[in-house]
Every structure is written in structure tokens, then in C-alpha cells.
Amino acid sequence: MKKLILILFAVITLICLVVAVRTVLHVPEPEHSGIKASGGEIRKVNANDIATHLSEAIQFPTISNQDSALFQADVFDAFIQWVLKTYPKSAQRMQLEILGGYSLLFKWQGSRADLKPVLLTAHYDVVPVIPGSEELWDHSPFGGVIADDIVWGRGALDDKSAVISMLEASELLISEGFEPSRTIYFSFGHDEELGGRQGAASVTRHLSSQGVQLLWSLDEGSFVTQNIMAGISDPVATINVAEKGSVTLQIVAKAEGGHSSMPPRNNAIGVLAEAITKLQDNPVPGGLEGLSAEMLDQLSRYMPFTERMIFANLWLFGGILESTLSESQVTNAMLRTTTAPTMLSGSVKVNVLPIEAIATVNFRLHPRDSIDDLQAYIEYIVAHPQIEVRRPGDNGIAASAVSDWRSEGFQVISRSLRSVYGDIAVAPGLMVAGSDSRHYTKVADNAFRFNPILVGPSDLAGFHGTNEKIGIENLVKATQVYALIIENSQQGSQ
Description:
Elements: H1 2-25, H2 47-58, H3 73-86, H4 88-93, E1 95-99, E2 103-108, E3 118-123, E4 146-147, E5 150-152, H5 160-175, E6 184-189, H6 199-209, E7 214-225, E8 236-243, E9 245-254, E10 258-259, H7 268-281, H8 290-300, H9 305-312, H10 314-326, H11 329-335, E11 338-345, E12 352-353, E13 356-365, H12 371-381, E14 387-390, H13 408-421, E15 425-431, H14 437-440, E16 444-455, E17 469-471, H15 472-488
Parallel strand pairs: 3-6, 3-7, 7-16, 8-15
Antiparallel strand pairs: 1-2, 2-6, 4-5, 5-17, 7-8, 9-13, 9-14, 10-12, 11-13
Helix pairs in contact: 1-9, 2-5, 2-15, 5-15, 13-15
């Protein structure tokens, strides 16, 4: 017995030693620590001008409505003319194509044809303000009010601030006499909120017809966040290298129907309720692997010792960690394809038993899952003689390919970002929503999704919500980062 106890003690001691050593070594990698000298010069920019220009841009209600009859062509035309007037150096120096009706594609010709071009993109259309909610805003949604060093209004975060910051950066560089060796494109979409089927899709077709293959593209996506990632109080930047796909399935329960005065033991709605419960109790399998594992591995290196210990020793704590992460809405979406029942329909009258009861379920596809594999899994989970799984129309959008986070483009963005924000945690991430990058990936070796502004918990409700706003300091830093990205993009041999 004594020998057994000594062996057990030795094993425990060895495990503790391995855990401790792995934790001590789980720190930022050399290329992720410190600001690289090659990050470039941080430029002084005119904060008042940037704020004024965003304020003016917000005053154009370039709204993307689901009902195309509500589209205001004159407003979009006026915005385009405002851009050309406000940024005359860019308009004069670059070639402009207006595609898909109202999307702007600027081409800043480089001196070397052997270098692949890069694309910076954003969108200037915005979502509507919910009718009746106008009084909940501290300032008019389309007033572009500047107060307390903040610019207020629809589009301040999503995504006119990026359009303005990119244009401010290009004006600044042109004023300095900067001449690119690598061609740079800027694409400003007008219907991203509707899927970019006219704007970004037309830009992609145009580039393809010209034989253009981009080295990389940079679109909206994640941000520099603070106090959002559990365990890290300092700013964190996740540069999204992929985005989820989306598909909507209908779970249909069938029954004979009849009068509600003589209901069967379990009618169509009851069968459907059981199916929905099965979906909720059996989420699509996920896991700490690939992109999700890389993101958490990099970010956890900036966490306190206890959290680092868990992430550094997945061989021991992996199962517990995955279970814990699955409990959070944010991290769960990073690990798997998510399941969201969103709509229900049944009988046409209160005293009529339904012949069909239908649950509409939206799935956001992780890059590891295909649409067909997902449907097969759902059919397996809800299998029942009275249940059918339908895919209405051709509504599926596959998840994007995963771009290379070790590539030149990712390093350009990371290096430029760190030059402005300092030694912050930077990691590849997964975009759980959609962007115009779903189109641009067709002509880009790599596609990145990141907007270099600082976002905290209080800002999240502004996206598509009430009191959307952005601080002027954020606009300044975004402009500085974009200027460095443009400058640093000229490096490399491809």
C-alpha cells in the first residue's frame, strides 16, 4: 500500500509539474510581443475634420430597406457626389467606377504590375431606424450631431465610419506625396445590409472580368474590444479570417387535424415541440480545433495565471473548458454551427387542429460544416414518422474558406494596428455574422474582416440598435491604422 501511495504521489507531482511548466511557457509568442519598428510612422490627423465629415455623411439617410420600393436613389446619388466633393485628391488621383448602380470602386494604380493588388472595403448603406423608436435616441438618428467628442447617428459604427476613415487616410497619404508600388482598390458598397447582391457582387464580377486577383482584402468584421473577452481587461483584437454561412430549415410536423374539442393525445404542435426540444438538447457538434483553437490559444496567453493554466493544458482540461465555453453565447458561436428557432406557425383558427405545424430554424454554419451535412444531422436528431425537414428555396450560404493568419496580409494589418494601439493581444477570429467579403473572397487569395476601432460592452447595442455613436478618438485611430495598412501593404514580393 505504501508503494502504491508513493507511485500515486509521484504521478500527481509529475502532472502538477507538467501543468506548471506549460503554463509558464504559455505567454505571447515573440512575433506577438512588442511593437515592431517596421510598423510605420503614426500620422497626425485633423480630428475636427474627420468628425465633421462623418457627421455630414450620417445626414444622408442611405437606408437599405427590405422593400425595394422604398429605395431613395436621389439620396444615394447625393452621397456619391458629396464623397467626390469632400475628398477631391482621391477623386482626382484614382480611377472611379460606379458599379451595381451606386457602389464605388476606386483604383489607386501602383507602379509595379508584378505585385498583386489589395482591396480595402466598407459599406455606406445603413439599416432603418425602428419606427417609433426615434424618441429613444439622445440625438436625431440622421442628425449627425457632434457632442461631447462623440459623433451620433445611424452609420456611426456600421459602417460609414470605416468609409470616412479610409478616405481620410487616402487623402492624407496623397497630400504627403505617397505613390503606391502595389495597386490599391477601395470598394464602398451601397447594399451590404441586403447581402451586397448588387454592389459587392458587381465589384467582384468587374474585378474578375479585368483578370484581377487580389493578394488580400480587408472588410468590416471584428474590432478592438475591451472588457468583452472574459479574463482579459486590456484591449483585444481578433482579425476575422472567416465568416459563418447561413441556412434556414423548416421542421414540419404533420397530423390529421380536426376540431379542437376532440384533440388527439399528441397533435402536430406537440410533435413539433418535441422536435424543437431535441434540437435544443443536441446542438451541432463543435470543438476546440482549427481556427477556434488558434484564436483562444493566442488570446489566452494574455490572461492571468489560472486561466492560462487551463488553456495551456487542454490535454487535461479540454473537456471542462469546452463545456464551459459552450455555456456562453459568444464563445459557443465560435465553437460550432448554432441553432436558432425563430418562427412558428400552426393552425389558421383557434378551434382547428393544424394539419402541419412548422418551426423555422436558422443555422449559422461553422466552416467545418457543409449545408448537406447539417441537414442530415438535423434529420437524424428530429427523426419521427410525423416529422419532415425542408429547405425552403435556395437559401443556403456556405461558410467561407478560412484565410491564412500566417500570411503577409494578416501581418500587415496586425503590425499596423499595434503601431497605433500598442502591444495588444491580436489573434485570428471567426465572424459569426455576414459581410460583403462573401463576394470579395472569389477574387482574393485571403480575406480579412476587421475594423480598427475600439468597442466596449456599452457600444454593442448601437449596432443596428438605438443611440449608435462613435468617439472622435476612435475615428482618429482608425484613420491612422488605415494609413499604415496602405503604406505597409506595399511590402512583400507577391
